[in-house]
Design goal:
The protein has 17 helices and no strands. It is mainly alpha-helical.
C-alpha cells in the first residue's frame, strides 16, 4: 500500500481541547529543529547528512557518562554489547514507525503524532511522560554539574573530592551547585525563545566526542594512580542484564525529537529516513560502546555511575573533559526545560480552551512561575540525590516508553485503520510487532521503575 495514500482517522481535531493544529505544532515544536515558513522551507530544509548529524546529536548526551557502569551492571563487555545490539533493532524500527505515522497523520511532532493516531488519552499521557522525562533529565544535569565541580575544586585545592578534611565552606557541593544553577541556568531558562540552542548543540557534540576519545585513550595509557577492580565476564543473573536497560534507553532515546527532524528533511521519505536513522544509530552505538567498554575495563567493578568521577582530580585531559561536560550541561538544561515547559503550556491551553494569542499577558506570568518552580524543584532534588544512576534508572524507564510503547501503539492503531488489508500476512505481522513493542516497553518500564524504588528504599 502506498504511504502517500494512507490517512489516519482520529478524533484529534474533534476534541474540545484542540485549538488550531498549526498553533499547537508551533507551541510544542522541539527546539532541536527550527521551524520555517512554508515559502522558505525548501531553502532551509535539512539534507540527509544533516539529518544524520541532528539525530546523532539528539541521541548522544549526558547518558554517555553512565555507560561504563551499565556494562558493569550487565555483567561485562559481551553482555553489554549483546544487549545494545539486540535493542538497536527495536530502537531503529521505532524511529521508522514514527516517521510512517507522521506521514499518515500529517503531524510534525512526536506528541502530535500520538494525539492524532492514538487519540486524546494516549496523547495526554504522552505529553505528561515528556514533561516528567525532561524534568528528570534536568535533575540529572544538575547532579552532573556537582560531580564535575567537585573534582575540579579538588584539583585546584589539592584535596580528595568529597572529602571534608581541609575543605572550606565555599567548596561545599550543595553551595557550588546552587550558585552555578542560580547564576547561569536560571537566567538562560526564563526567555520564551532559546536562540542559542544551535551553538549549544555544536558544543555538546564536541564535548561528547572529546569525552569518548579521552576515555579510550586513558584505557590504553592509564594513569598510574588508577587501580582497576575485578572485571566480571558474565552477568550474575539474567535480571542484572535488565538493570542495564535504563541507561541504554536513556542514551539512545532520540525519538521525541526525531519527528520534527524527519519533517524538516528535503525529501521526507521512509527509504531515506531509514538510511538516516540506521547510520545515526550505528554511529551512536560505536560512541557508546567505545566509552562503555574502555571505561568499564579501566576501572572494573569499581567504576562510578559517573565515569569521570573515577579518574583522579589532577588528570589534566580529564579535567578539560569535565569543563566540556559542565558547559554542555549548563546550556542543555534550558533546552530540556523549554521542551517540558512547552508541553505543560500546551496542556494548560487545551484545558482552558484558549489560544496563544488570547493568553499573551498571562503567558508571561505563567512562564515565570513555571520556570522558577521547575528550577527550584530540580535543584532541591539534585542536592539530595547525589547519584545520577538513581535518576537514570527512573527516567530510563520513561525513555523505554518513547522507544517502545508509543511507537508500538501508533503502529497498531495505524494498521487497524487499514481494514481492507486485515487478512494479509504483512498486516498481521505488523500488528503483532506493534503488540511486541508495547509489551516489551511496558515490561522495561515496570521492571526498571520497580528496581529503582526498591533500591532506594533498601538504601
Amino acid at each position: 500500500m502506498s504511504l502517500n495514500n494512507v490517512t489516519i482517522n482520529s478524533e484529534y481535531n474533534d476534541t474540545d481541547w484542540s485549538a488550531d493544529a498549526g498553533e499547537r505544532a508551533h507551541l510544542l515544536q522541539s527546539p532541536c529543529v527550527e521551524s520555517a515558513p512554508k515559502a522558505g522551507r525548501e531553502q532551509s530544509a535539512t539534507s540527509s547528512l544533516g539529518a544524520v548529524f541532528i539525530v546523532v546529536n539528539a541521541a548522544l548526551g549526558a547518558g554517555l557518562l553512565n555507560f561504563p557502569a551499565a556494562f558493569c551492571t550487565a555483567g561485562g563487555v559481551a553482555a553489554g554489547i549483546a544487549l545494545q545490539m539486540s535493542m538497536l533493532v527495536f530502537i531503529i524500527s521505532g524511529l521508522i514507525i514514527l516517521a510512517y505515522c507522521s506521514q499518515a497523520s500529517n503531524e510534525r511532532t512526536y506528541q502530535e503524532v500520538v494525539w492524532a493516531v492514538c487519540g486524546k488519552a494516549a496523547g495526554v499521557l504522552c505529553e505528561i511522560a515528556i514533561a516528567v522525562y525532561t524534568f528528570g533529565t534536568c535533575i540529572t544535569f544538575l547532579i552532573i554539574i556537582g560531580d564535575q565541580e567537585d573534582k575540579i575544586i579538588a584539583a585546584i585545592a589539592k584535596t580528595e573530592a568529597g572529602s571534608s578534611e581541609g575543605s572550606h565552606w565555599y567548596t561545599d557541593r550543595k553551595l557550588t551547585i546552587s550558585v552555578t544553577a542560580i547564576l547561569v541556568v536560571l537566567p538562560l531558562s526564563i526567555p520564551k525563545e532559546i536562540g542559542f540552542q544551535k551553538y549549544a548543540s555544536a558544543l555538546s557534540v564536541i564535548g561528547t566526542w572529546y569525552v569518548t576519545i579521552i576515555i579510550i585513550i586513558k584505557y590504553f595509557w592509564p594513569n598510574e594512580a588508577i587501580s582497576p577492580g575485578l572485571v566480571p565476564t558474565s552477568p550474575p543473573s539474567w535480571m542484572s542484564v535488565f538493570n542495564a536497560m535504563p541507561t541504554i534507553c536513556f542514551g539512545f532515546q532520540c525519538h521525541v525529537s526525531s519527528v520534527p527532524v524527519f519533517n524538516s528533511m528535503k525529501r521526507p521519505e521512509l527509504k531515506t529516513w531509514s538510511w538516516v536513522v540506521t547510520t545515526a544509530m550505528v554511529i551512536a552505538l560505536f560512541v557508546y560502546t567505545g566509552t562503555g567498554v574502555c571505561g568499564f575495563l579501566t576501572f572494573g567493578s569499581t567504576v562510578n555511575q559517573d565515569v569521570l568521577i573515577s579518574y583522579p582530580p589532577n588528570d589534566v585531559p580529564v579535567a578539560i573533559a569535565r569543563v566540556f561536560i559542565i558547559v554542555s550541561v549548563l546550556t542543555s538544561y534550558p533546552i530540556l526545560h523549554f521542551c517540558g515547559r512547552a508541553v505543560l503550556e500546551g496542556l494548560w491551553l487545551r484545558y482552558k480552551g484558549v489560544t496563544v494569542e488570547e493568553d499573551v499577558v498571562m503567558e508571561r506570568r505563567r512562564r515565570l512561575l513555571q520556570t522558577v518552580t521547575w528550577f527550584l524543584l530540580t535543584l532541591v532534588l539534585a542536592l539530595f540525590i547525589p547519584d545520577i544512576g538513581k535518576v537514570i534508572a527512573l527516567i530510563g524507564g520513561l525513555a523505554a516508553c518513547f522507544i517502545f510503547v508509543f511507537p508500538g501503539l501508533c503502529l497498531i492503531q495505524a494498521k487497524l485503520s487499514e481494514v481492507q488489508e486485515s487478512n494479509s500476512r504483512r498486516w498481521c505481522a505488523l500488528v503483532s510487532y506493534g503488540v511486541l513493542l508495547v509489551v516489551l516497553g511496558a515490561f522495561i518500564f515496570g521492571q526498571t521503575t520497580t528496581n529503582a524504588i526498591l533500591v532506594d528504599l533498601s538504601g
